[in-house]
Specification:
Blueprint: E1 8-11, H1 15-26, E2 33-37, E3 52-53, H2 57-60, E4 67-70, H3 75-87, E5 91-94, H4 97-112, E6 118-119, H5 130-137, E7 143-149, H6 152-164, H7 168-177, H8 186-189, H9 192-206, E8 216-217, H10 225-233, E9 237-247, E10 250-260, E11 273-280, E12 284-291, H11 295-308, H12 319-322, E13 326-327, E14 332-337, E15 347-354, E16 357-363, H13 364-369, H14 371-376, E17 382-383, H15 386-404
Parallel strand pairs: 1-2, 1-4, 2-3, 4-5, 5-6, 8-10, 10-13
Antiparallel strand pairs: 7-9, 7-11, 9-10, 11-12, 14-16, 14-17, 15-16
Helix pairs in contact: 1-11, 3-4, 4-9, 6-7
Length: 405
């Protein structure tokens, strides 16, 4: 790319936009920035010498701009911007995970019919280049499971709660002050941010296009002090875990607060860090960890996409086999709750601990149906695997034996 050509159109100059711009400056490429489209022209900007505009068409109508970097938060506005750029044959870099999760199937088709390329590594796991890893490292191996911490905000909050004894509100306020949480943190704390990222990974790893409305997502916002005490008493912590898993020709998907113990690598992932475990047929388990929130980590991945866009393209090689894979919601999972009895009509099995507290087996589809009830009553839901369930059961039995000794 010529350093004299102003060939970059940047749309959005928030946290990630600033991070991307910093990398341009660091690499003496800021002169290639033709236009920066912003929403609020009265807001003070640093630097204030850039060619700011409030008109998207200043990017679309500029034939010298060959790459559009879309970094706005509004997913409804982002889609037509990206679509128009691809229709014009421009390259596009985006980190808008919600827009991509809702429109990925159409965006793949648009790119296939465009002279441009669409890259969006920054939409998934912060500084971890997980899309590149899946597309290249696992190109000749079959992935069977992906699980991980995909939201730095919720992980930061949970770390403060478990390690510093803060309550939920205190930890959220600190995350906002540190720049790891938005003024409106709903998408982060209710699990949707992690879900959008997981759905993107479902396409790359398994070839499936799944809309957010069809998926199970429960966030950390209903976790109580009693849940924290229960976890600590059982030598556990809680992480917001996104999970994709295939068994035969069936794929399950969920985003849930989850009990993890010290045998799990996710146990040691703290603060704003993300982590992804990929399990494949031949390689087995591999673990990737990196910063998941902040201006520079995501800005770096966006900048890398910009640098690679002339030579890189996602393969989407799993889409043909994904058509034979069934998205399954009838699988049973075990969940703990502070008021498990309120879910009684959905449970297949239940173990009561103290009052309404306990854990039970429930179908993913029934947990999706129960979401309204869960939200109305602020019921905590925390997933537990068979190993941890057995650990809790053993401890409970020993306690009962001591009481009756």
């Amino acid at each position: 790319m010529s350093t004299q050509t102003k060939n970059i159109g940047l749309i959005g100059f928030g946290t990630v936009g600033h991070g991307f711009y910093n990398y341009l400056v660091e690499n003496n490429e800021d002169k290639q920035l033709a236009t920066v489209v912003i929403k609020n022209p009265s807001k003070s900007r640093i630097p204030d010498t850039l060619n700011f505009s409030t008109a998207i068409n200043d990017v679309h109508n500029n034939k010298e701009i060959t790459t559009v970097v879309e970094l706005i938060s509004d997913y409804e506005q982002a889609f037509p911007i990206v679509k128009q750029a691809l229709l014009q044959g421009k390259n596009v870099v985006s980190s808008n995970k919600k827009m991509i999760a809702y429109h990925l199937e159409e965006l793949v088709k648009l790119e296939q019919n465009s002279k441009g390329t669409f890259l969006y590594e920054g939409s998934v796991a912060g500084s971890i280049p997980i899309i590149k890893i899946i597309n290249e490292h696992y190109a000749y191996d079959e992935i069977t499971e992906i699980r991980g911490i995909l939201n730095g905000t919720s992980n930061y909050i949970l770390t403060q709660i478990f390690e510093k004894g803060m309550n939920y509100s205190e930890a959220l306020n600190q995350a906002q002050e540190a720049g790891f949480a938005e003024a409106n943190p709903t998408s982060d704390v209710e699990g949707y941010d992690a879900l959008y990222k997981l759905l993107i990974l479902a396409t790359h790893a398994f070839g499936k296009f799944i809309l957010p409305e069809k998926a199970l997502v429960i966030g950390i916002n209903n976790i109580k002090t009693s849940d924290i005490s229960f976890a600590k008493n059982n030598h556990l912590t809680i992480k917001l875990v996104g999970s994709l898993k295939t068994v035969g020709n069936k794929l399950t998907l969920s985003v849930l607060p989850t009990f993890v113990d010290e045998k799990d690598d996710l146990f040691f992932v703290k603060n704003e860090y993300n982590a992804v475990e990929v399990i494949s047929k031949n390689i087995g388990s591999q673990f990737y960890k990196g910063k998941g929130a902040g201006s520079l980590p995501t800005g770096h991945v966006v900048y890398t996409d910009y640098k690679l866009i002339e030579s890189a393209k996602y393969s989407y090689k799993n889409i043909p086999s994904g058509k034979r894979l069934k998205y399954e919601t009838n699988q049973n999972i075990w969940v703990y709750s502070d008021r498990i009895t309120l879910l009684e009509k959905y449970l297949n099995e239940v173990v009561l601990l103290k009052g309404p507290e306990g854990y039970g087996s429930i179908k993913i589809s029934d947990l999706i149906k129960a979401k309204e009830l869960i939200n109305i009553h602020n019921i905590s839901i925390i997933a537990l695997n068979d190993t941890i369930r057995e650990k809790i059961s053993t401890r409970l039995n020993k306690k009962r034996q001591l009481m009756h000794a």
